Amino acid sequence: MITILFIAFGLAMDALAVSITSGLTIKGLRISNALTIALFFGSFQAFMPVIGWIVGLSARDFITGIDHWIAFGLLSLIGCKMIFESTKIGSKEKEIDPLNIYVLLILAIATSIDALAVGLSLSFLKVAIVTPAIIIGIVTFMVSFLGVFVGNRFGHFFENKIEIIGGLTLIGIGIKILIEHLVLNIA
Question: Quick one: pLDDT at residue 93?
Answer without folding.
Answer: 45
